[in-house]
Design a protein that fits this description.
This protein is mainly alpha-helical. It has 15 helices and two strands.
């Protein structure tokens, strides 16, 4: 039977998870648009920003995950982390260059990764167990696309070609993040099983990277490796997604195309988590990758609004389902009492490796991309459909890895 979770847990998870994802969506999808529109950033600029943020996220999660384990506390890192995270988001209202955006993106990522990647994700692992992790991860993995929908809908009322709109956006998102952090001071409960550790900090910091630990947990590290390949495929196109829809395809109403796809994909993923609890990792991963591949193929050839919608629906569904099943599997395999110390290894597989390799591949693909002359005489690049074909090839590699893993998997 599934362990029943309290309503307080579900509310805490919803507000912290959703606000965290909204903030990440603004960073991962709209900082690129911000520097593209405000400072005429190149594909190289965007790639550098994504990679620098990925490195900062990984380093922060490794260190702060170990710190939270050693202290036996998640709540303080989550709540105060969100408060300072929100303050850092507001600071972007005053940025005037690409270089400063990249620097402040790393600063913001430190606080965001402390609060969300390290503390919140460890807290989710602490609170759940193997009987309900699929349900928890299904809802948690649904949040990124719901957050995209919220941000898309909220941004529709802004002219993103004007700096004043960005100032308003950063104030709204920043203040909302601060508010959630303050709410968490009264809402979040610590796991009753979480206790401070007396082991040396260096031991806790490096625990998830010790060869002996890897040898004792081979499934976990194989899963992290496959998750990294999945993430590389996503990161090839994700940094350029909005620019591709708006500029390359000429869909000024791209929100109308993406919003229904996101809603349907999010609903499907909420039920998909329960399927994981019944059918397991390999079955559910196969379904997710099938949807993702279909989406890539359709988006590679599509230019009209209906096929773009259908391709986006399949792509978003596959992406979200994949995040759900990999996330649930990783939480199931993390040794009890070590959730914080393994967040560093998780973030390397989920963020650092994809964030370094995916955007680099994207930048190479787009180095000879077509360009357009803007109204002010500046030149901007246009992402082309190759981002979908290269993403597809990476998924083919992952399918081979999954096939080999299933043959040698041992319980």
């Amino acid at each position: 039977m599934s362990t029943k979770m309290s309503s307080r847990f579900w509310v805490s998870m919803l507000v912290f998870g959703m606000m965290g994802q909204v903030a990440w969506v603004v960073e991962n999808m709209y900082f690129n648009v911000f520097i593209y529109k405000m400072f005429n950033a190149t594909a190289g600029d965007i790639s550098l920003m994504v990679m620098a943020s990925a490195v900062m996220a990984a380093l922060t999660t490794i260190v702060m995950g170990a710190v939270s384990d050693r202290m036996g506390r998640r709540k303080a890192f989550m709540t105060w982390g969100y408060i300072i995270w929100g303050i850092s988001i507001v600071s972007f209202a005053y940025i005037k260059s690409v270089a400063l955006t990249i620097v402040m993106d790393c600063v913001m990522t430190f606080f965001g990764s402390t609060a969300n990647d390290a503390a919140y994700n460890a807290w989710l692992t602490d609170m759940g167990d193997s009987s309900n992790r699929g349900r928890i991860e299904g809802l948690n993995s649904m949040m990124p696309l719901v957050a995209i929908l919220i941000v898309f809908g909220g941004f529709m009322g802004f002219d993103l070609d004007t700096h004043s709109s960005w100032v308003t956006i950063y104030y709204i998102i920043g203040i909302a993040t601060i508010g959630i952090g303050i709410l968490g001071l009264f809402l979040i409960d610590e796991s009753p099983n979480l206790t401070p550790s007396s082991e040396p900090f260096k031991t806790a910091l490096l625990y998830g990277f010790r060869p002996s630990v890897m040898k004792r947990n081979p499934k976990l590290y194989k899963t992290l490796g496959m998750f990294a390949v999945f993430g590389i495929s996503i990161q090839i196109f994700m940094s350029y997604l909005i620019i591709y829809y708006e500029k390359t395809l000429g869909l000024s109403n791209y929100v109308v195309v993406l919003a229904p796809a996101i809603v349907i994909a999010a609903i499907a993923t909420a039920f998909f988590g329960r399927l994981y609890d019944r059918k397991g990792f390999f079955f559910c991963t196969g379904i997710a990758l099938t949807f993702l591949c279909i989406g890539y193929v359709v988006l590679y050839i599509a230019t009209d609004i209906l096929p773009v919608f259908l391709g986006s629906l399949c792509m978003m569904s596959g992406y979200l389902m994949g995040m759900s099943v990999f996330g649930a599997q990783i939480r199931d395999l993390i040794p009890e009492g070590r959730a914080g110390q393994f967040q560093g290894a998780r973030i390397i597989g989920q963020v650092l490796i994809p964030g370094m390799i995916g955007p680099a591949i994207g930048a190479v693909i787009l180095q000879d991309a077509p360009t357009i002359i803007n109204a002010d005489g500046t030149v901007s690049f246009l992402p082309n459909a190759d981002i979908w074909s290269y993403s597809l090839w990476i998924i083919f590699l992952l399918i081979v890895m999954l096939f080999l893993a299933k043959r040698i998997w041992r319980d």
